[in-house]
Amino acid sequence: MTEKKTKHHHGDLRNALIQAGIAILAEDGIDKLTLRRCAARAGVSHAAPAHHFKGVEGLRGAIAEEGFVIFRGYMQRELDKVGDDPHRRLKAISLGYLLFALENPALFELIFGISAMLYLNEVQPESPGASYDMLRQCCAPFVAEGAESGPVEAQVWSLIHGFATLFLSEQFGPVDRGNPDLDAFNKVITLLDSLPLADRA
Amino acid sequence: MTEKKTKHHHGDLRNALIQAGIAILAEDGIDKLTLRRCAARAGVSHAAPAHHFKGVEGLRGAIAEEGFVIFRGYMQRELDKVGDDPHRRLKAISLGYLLFALENPALFELIFGISAMLYLNEVQPESPGASYDMLRQCCAPFVAEGAESGPVEAQVWSLIHGFATLFLSEQFGPVDRGNPDLDAFNKVITLLDSLPLADRA
DNA sequence: TGTGTTAACTTTACAGTGTCAAGTTTGGAC
DNA sequence: GTCCAAACTTGACACTGTAAAGTTAACACA
Questions:
Q1: Per the domain annotation, does B75 fall within a domain?
Q2: B41 CA, D11 C1': separation in Å?
Q3: Which listed residue, A145, A170, B148, B175, has the most CB atoms within 10 A of its CB?
Q4: Which residues cross the membrane (chains A, B) (predicted)?
Q5: Are A117 and B160 in contact (CB < 8 Å)?
Q6: Are residues A109 and A31 in the same domain?
């Protein structure tokens, strides 16, 4: 308790609301994420969040920003397990991407929901950039000197994002999110084996 | 007006509500799709839809069902433009997939929203199956005799679904949905060129 | 130490949402 | 012609976001 910021009233309400939101997402799902519930969980009145976020979109944006940090953690953890082989790194970051989606489905939906990009672009061009940079680095070995990197990145991102989305929504069959069968993932990801390494000077 | 089904009161309220919902999606976006707005647009009281759909999820499911019909139309239209070459057919169905997303973004989001699969599975195991069958047929030439078809289908579907989702949410840059630049699509889809044709008996 | 100022927060209020429980109307079977 | 059940309306309630007005408390300044 000594670490209490002893700010004006609450201390650190903005962060408390974000953490409340993340907990609500994990426990109750995305459509239970409301301003009033976050406020109640943080122990303040229902109108308090308005002083820290611009409406409910602002709150969602702030939660998404925090979500990207967690997201990057998943990818980094898998990257740390493998060496320098470019194809293995590609698979590792993809696995991290998938595991994040499986273990944080509501947060994944919040972050990558189609309408989500509206507030993301406004609120924070920072964090998604950092996530994208991780992907970019993993794709770099497959981009020829002087060539544009966009197509390879789009191929890799499309494949893993599409698979994660469809797998999570059980389009490929029932999923035990606690102990997922990664057989389908391993087979799909072989498509990236056909990506040729660029010979670099 | 003579074609009025002269059912009990309204005539064909269920269908009118679905059409109202599709119009609202196109005009106002997905978060304006509410029971009360659909009811108002169809000219009935706010509680009337309850007699045709099980809550708002039921309405969304019914609209999704209709959306899949439109979706299949887009894919079929592109397939009709090409011949028998398997790789070209794969690109054609993918283009139809993308064009549907671009021209019906809210409907696409409704259909493929991550939480969407809940009511889809309950309400109608029919239409999505029909859509999936189209994909399956396009993938068949790449599946060896006796081999399982799942992996190839998952690769193709993941790639195009991921690309459509990310492209639509402008992750690859600004998009003019009326006149989209399909350059990125054409480059990403080349990844499918590496799919080997199965030599069939 | 006392006094303002202002940001943080609360209270109150209102429109919109889904959903339930009653009513009312009407098409059609008998 | 009567009656019934389905279709639809009306009214109510809890919940949502948001705005306006009121209250509290931290801090600067005298």
A1: yes
A2: 21
A3: B175
A4: none
A5: no
A6: no
Residues A25 and A116 in one domain: no
> Contact B191/A194, CB-based, under 8 Å?
yes
Instruction: Tell me the ipTM for this assembly.
Output: 0.90
Give residue for tokens 């609209």.
Answer: B63
CB contact under 8 A, B154 and A117: no
Residue B1 counted as domain residue:
no
What residue numbers bound the domain in which A35 lies? 1-52
Find out whether A192 and A90 touch, Cβ atoms under 8 Å: yes
Do B188 and B129 belong together in one domain?
Answer: yes
A169: chain B residues, CB-CB within 8 Å: 112, 114, 116-117
Question: If we measure between CA atoms, which residue out of B148, B156, B145, B161 comes closest to residue B108?
Answer: B161
Say if residues B142 and B86 touch (Cβ distance below 8 Å): yes
Q: Which nucleotide is nearest to B50 (CA to C1')?
A: C19
Structural domain count, chain A: 2
Task: For chain B, positions 45-104, list CB contacts with chain A under 8 A.
Answer: none
Show residues of chain A in contact with B107, CB under 8 Å: none
Which of B31, B168, B191 faces A155 most closely, judged by CB atoms?
B191
The pair of three-digit structure tokens given for residue A187, joined into one six-digit string:
């087979």
DSSP string, B19-73: HHHHHHHHHH-GGG--HHHHHHHHTS-TTGGGGTSSHHHHHHHHHHHHHHHHHHH
Partners of B31 on chain A (C-beta within 8 Å) are 115
Query: Is residue A118 located within the same domain as residue A25?
Result: no
Show Cβ contacts of residue B60 under 8 Å, excluding neighbours closer than 6 positions: B21, B33, B110, B116, B119
Q: Token pair of B41, please?
A: 């647009």
Both A98 and A190 in one domain: the answer is: yes
Together in a domain, B45 and B99 = no
Structure confidence by residue, pLDDT tens digits, B66-117: 999 999 999 999 999 999 999 999 999 999 999 999 999 999 999 998 666 6
Q: Are A168 and A112 in contact (CB under 8 A)?
A: no
How confident is the prediction along chain A (201 residues), in pLDDT tens digits per residue? 323 333 456 779 999 999 999 999 999 999 999 999 999 999 999 999 999 999 999 999 999 999 999 999 999 999 999 999 999 999 999 999 999 999 999 999 999 986 666 555 544 545 566 889 999 999 999 999 999 999 999 999 999 999 999 999 988 989 999 899 999 999 999 999 999 999 866
For residue B73, give both structure tokens.
Answer: 């139309």
